[in-house]
Amino acid sequence: MNRLLNTDISTLNQKLKTREITCTELITETFNNIHKSKLNSYITLMEESALKKASSLDKNSDFNHLLTGIPIAIKDNICIRNFPTTCGSKILKDFIPPYNATVIDKLESLNAIFVGKTNLDEFAMGSSTENSAFNPTLNPYNPNLVPGGSSGGSAATVKANESICALGSDTGGSIRQPAAFCGVVGLKPTYGLVSRYGLVAFASSLDQIGPITHCAKDSAILLDAIAGEDPKDSTSRNSKQTGQYFNKLNPEIKNLKIGIPKEYFVEGIAPEIKEKILSTAKLMEQSGAVLYDISLPNTEYAIAIYYLIATAEASSNLARYDGVKYGYRIPESENLKTMYEFTKEQGFGKEVKRRIMLGTFGLQSGYYDEYYNKACKVRNLIASDFETAFKKVDIILTPSTPTLPFKIGERITDPLQMYLSDIFTVSVNLAGLPAISFKCGEYNGLPIGAQLIGKPFSEQLLLNTTYAYEQITAI
Ligand code: GLN
């Protein structure tokens, strides 16, 4: 029915506060929606603990914080103490972390309610959530289509009212691309704004945790809760702006300088997407923004560079799954070497193996300079393209994806085609920038995502601009 969940966090908070609804009712309805759903958004449900928490909040809480009692879904590569964290992989099927990720500690201290762990491409490697060892998630708009990936479970769960909001992780687009395919808002924070402690590492110089929500307001509320420096993550950085996003939301975009990069509107982009993004720009212009044509000339190298760097880091990060320290180990083996070999052979899926091999290749002595080192240099060029652009404009508007959601099975056998779905998102991670994807319209009943990219730590501007667009289009 979605009686309660088809709304935003502050409205729900108001209802909880005035006791118009109880938290138990809210959580019960969330699980009713989940049990009726055929989307396969979740790997693990936390129904018992969620209901227990709801009942205790009903008795003891005045719901003074916006997130108190609010159901939230967590991507299954973020650790919650005493619940499985599978990363969508057979190798971690039975892994139960004895600790919380920092983002989980923060949400727990506000008494948000964890509903469950959402499905993902194995170790967050993919763009469709088909690479999960726990079967694909389906798109809430049309079950024959993918929800995007790798945070497909988190995006689908928000759209289908199986939670009100979710956390995802984004290494090359995994928050923004599924947000675009499921018609919700996905924010990839500046590298270092949110602690990565307790996020299972894929490519450590690119990974960030971020919110997936119905709207900009909810995204701001969630970002307020999770952002900030963490002594447990030496790459987390202190930004003075944290803790203010929701209070400072302001839909004024008069004189905002928006850059439109020509490299994002080239061959290969679906015409309906190009048209919708350009009309989104026009609408913003009518509200007082000023449009500028800009160029990000090294965009054409982004996919190649991303896949060299991400696979190199992944091959190193995934070396720890050797059957000794974590998770799965084959039942019998002749010696240590065969134990390693067969554990990895059986525990990892096809895409993960492909990436480990690619990454190991790129890091080999003899190839290191030619591949990995060169990729790091071009990465700097991509970052300096953005720096140059931000001397002229405040924010950059692009499509989030080159196509509408594609069919399940359509790209899974063609990795290159799959990798191309990240063409508009990977540069942002390589440069460490923040970016947001929001639904700017529909075509044939399917959502189209627009992406806004900002300077480091300009999350407030990204949220404000998205909020502005939501106001403009609601009229
Ligand atoms: N689709 C990209 C990849 O497969 C990005 C994944 C991500 O952001 N986790 O690497």
* Main sheet makeup: 11 strands, mixed
Our measurement of the CA-to-CA distance between the termini, rounded to an integer number of angstroms, reads 26 Å
Mean pLDDT across every amino acid position:
96
Regions with little confidence, pLDDT below 50 for 5+ residues:
none
Strand order of the largest sheet: 1-3-2-4-6-5-10-11-9-7-8
How much of the sequence is in beta strands? 5-15%
User: Overall 3D geometry?
Assistant: globular
Helical stretch count? Answer: 15
- What structural class should be given to the helix and strand makeup? alpha/beta
Account of the 3D structure:
This protein is α/β, with parallel strands linked by helices and 475 residues long. Helix content is 38%, strand content 13%. It contains 15 helices and 11 strands. The protein has helices at residues 9-17, 23-36, 47-60, 102-109, 152-159, 176-182, 216-226, 271-286, 302-317, 336-347, 350-363, 369-392, 415-420, 426-431, 459-474, and strands spanning 42-45, 71-75, 113-118, 165-170, 185-188, 208-213, 257-261, 290-294, 395-399, 435-443, 446-454. An 11-stranded mixed sheet has the order 1-3-2-4-6-5-10-11-9-7-8, with helices on both faces. Helix 9 crosses helix 12 (369-392). The model has no long low-confidence stretch (mean pLDDT 96). Glutamine (GLN) binds next to loops.
